[in-house]
Amino acid sequence: MKRTKLVLNRILQIIPILLIVTILAFVLSNVSAGDVASVTLQSRGVQVTEENLEAVREELGLNAPMPVQYWNWLKKAVCFDFGNSFQTNRPVSEEILSRFPATLKLALAATLISLLMAIPLAVFSARYKDSLFDHAVRAISSIAATMPDFWLGLMLLYLFAVEWKIAPVISGSRTENILFPAFTLSVANTAAYTRVLRSNLLDAARGDYIIAARARGLGKSMALMKHGLKNALLPLITLVGINFGKMLSGQVAVETIFSWNGIGQFAVNCMKQKDLPVIQGYIVVVSITYILINLILDLIYMFIDPRIDSE
Amino acid sequence: MIKNTGRKLLRNKSAMFGLMIILILLLMGLFAGRIASHDPTLVDITNKLAPSSKEYPLGTDQMGRCILCRLIYGIEISMFTAIKVTFIILLVGVPLGMIAGYCGGIADNLVMRLADIASTFPSTLLALAVVGIFGPSLDHLVLVFIFLWWAPFARMVRSSVIKLKETEFVMAAEAAGCSRRDIIMKHIFPNTLSPVIVYATLRIAAVITHIAGFSFIGLGSQPPAPDWGVMLNDGRQYIDTHPGMLFWPGLAIVIVVFAFNLFGEGLNDALIPAEEEMAVVKETGDSNE
Predict the structure, then answer these.
(1) What pLDDT does B161 receive?
(2) Do A108 and A77 have their domain in common?
(3) Model pLDDT, residue B203
(4) I want to staple A57 with a disulfide (CB 3.0 to 4.6 A). Which of A51, A62, B133, B222 is the partner?
(5) Three-class secondary structure of residue A72 per DSSP
(6) How many CB pairs under 8 A join A and B?
């Protein structure tokens, strides 16, 4: 019973956040770029005269009071209708959706690389604690954690694409070119996951169940793998999930460096061109994705954590 | 206690090394006008993309500006700004954490919900929104960092305060009739500081990376400011002919960030007892965003 209440509570918590996000996105359009009407006129290539301005204001409903405008905008936003992009004149939802797969692919690949590197590194590092390998892993991960992804990306691009000509300079969002951008994105996360997982594993290794498993005759490595890893991985889920959500908002620097046509790069370019409908759409879509991922993570946690019932 | 900590810190070679780099760079930034022989924004097209020479040790950029001078002036933008921003973040986060931890109840709930929102919001998203409203500039970007990054400090202070409230010396002070203000300022506040100082040092490094990163994508400092991120962005077009334009600003960022991290980790060893160390590592494990 307690669990149902918690879950409901958690789901209800979304509502105020959604309100804040949509208000933020809406207010943005009214404050930035000055007068919305004149920006709209300019984007259509129509001369800005008092007469035309009045017509556009009427057309866009800009004469109505602010809350009414917000309500009208929200009604459309719920159906993912954010109007047309000023630059391309295509619907914003189409523009965003067409770029979302590229960002999603990159986020998935980067997460996969991070986990594939972090899990074995952490396991060996914890198994052979204070060995040369352990020290090396810790030193490298603390350097990797400080490496800004934009610089790492630029250096990789220079070395592999310009000097050695192994990789193309322009990735063009093609899957076969995903390795370098994904690797660049994964490095800092790999370092964080390795650290957290290693310290979780060391905590777990001191747990009674590991001692029990060892007493039953399981080898040190087997005990750690079979029993320790499962328990050590759970706390990592949240971290991985949150980072995944952040990557879905688009990794502007990496996308720019590798010419990866994702939503982050697109949104920033539109920002510079004051393409308001796109920015509004971006903020709403990304926030919702992000809120949902966080919700799912919390729900997963509520279902696997047995302590919740007893609290 | 303080003596002990100081001695521990002095003996920690890597922390002292980090501190030395930080101090040298701060001095360089402070006296940039004396050290750098050229105006960092002075355009001299006839001398563009010059190779390294005695006058321009690292060469010049696409506008004929001295790269080394720009790097030195960049210290002010990145290090000074980051230190200031982190200080403001502390001014917001620490009192909020104290209030939440000491008062509990509605205040606690409110602060923690706000902290939840702040700590899960992607910084790119908020940066786009804020820069969209106020226009691209470093000052506006800094607002984003303050808005998002007070939360871990508030959480840290709150949990220390809650623990401290139950300790015997605080209860004794309460029983002895000390005023609330005295209890908070004399008994609780000083004891919450260690993890805060450690985390703040590490956070300065993160602010520096983020300032450069956002300036690189055009949402932070605007050209011709000698921001390291702006310099990297300038260099992007010359990646095949003048990779130095990309290499040096990036190296500057890495050195500064690394120095703050070394120093922060040294502080961690010196200030925080071994059994509590894990907690700080875990708190700071929540990625750099």
Answers:
(1) 92
(2) no
(3) 93
(4) A62
(5) helix
(6) 130
CATH of B77-283, one of 3.40.50.620, 2.60.40.3580, 1.10.3380.30, 1.10.3720.10: 1.10.3720.10
Task: Return the residue in B14, B71, B124, B214 with the most chain A beta carbons within 10 A, the one to mutate for interface testing.
Answer: B124
Q: Least CA distance to A162: which residue of chain B?
A: B240
Within an 8 Å CB–CB cutoff, is residue B120 touching chain A? Answer: yes
Minimum distance, in Å, between the CA of residue A52 and any CA atom of chain B? 25
Q: Identify all chain A residues contacting B258, using CB atoms and an 8 Å cutoff.
A: 143, 146
Q: Which of A28, A196, A242 sits opposite B133 (nearest CB)?
A: A28
Average pLDDT of the segment spanning A269-296: 85
Contact yes or no for B128 and A195 at CB 8 A? no
Domain contains A200: yes
Shared domain for A150 and A239, answered yes or no, is yes
Are the beta carbons of A252 and B132 separated by less than 8 Å?
Answer: no
Closest CB from A151, A249, A257 relative to B254 = A151
Does residue A60 share a domain with residue A118?
A: no
Looking at the domain assignment, is residue A108 inside a domain? yes
pLDDT of residue A154: 93
Same domain, residue pair A43 and A147: no
Do A162 and B239 make contact, defined as CB atoms within 8 angstroms? yes
What is the pLDDT averaged over residues B267-281?
Answer: 67
Instruction: With respect to residue A208, please indicate whether it lies within any of the assigned structural domains.
Output: yes
Q: Which CA distances in Å does B119 have to A10, B113, B133?
A: 17, 10, 22
**C-alpha neighbours within 13 Å on the C-beta side of residue B167:** 13
In the prediction, which pLDDT does B87 show?
A: 97
Mean pLDDT over residues B146-166, rounded?
Answer: 92
Domain of residue A42: give its range.
2-92
Q: What is the ipTM of this complex?
A: 0.84
pLDDT of residue B96: 95
Residue with tokens 């002990």: B4
Q: What are the chain B neighbours of A294 within 8 Å (beta carbons)?
A: 120
Q: How many distinct structural domains can be found in chain A? A: 2
Mutation choice for B interface testing from A135, A154, A244 by most B CBs within 10 A: A154
Give me the residue from A142, A158, A246 closest to B289, CB to CB. Answer: A246
> Do A259 and A194 have their domain in common?
yes
Q: Which two tokens stand for residue A94?
A: 């189409």
When comparing pLDDT for B239 and A63, which is higher? B239
CATH number of the domain where residue A260 is located: 1.10.3720.10
A26 has which bridge partners?
Answer: none
Domain final residue pick, A75, A92, A109: A92
Of A40, A66, A92, the last residue of a domain is A92
Question: Does residue A285 sit within a domain?
Answer: no
**Among A232-236, A299-303, B21-25, which range has the highest average pLDDT?**
B21-25
pLDDT score at B283: 46
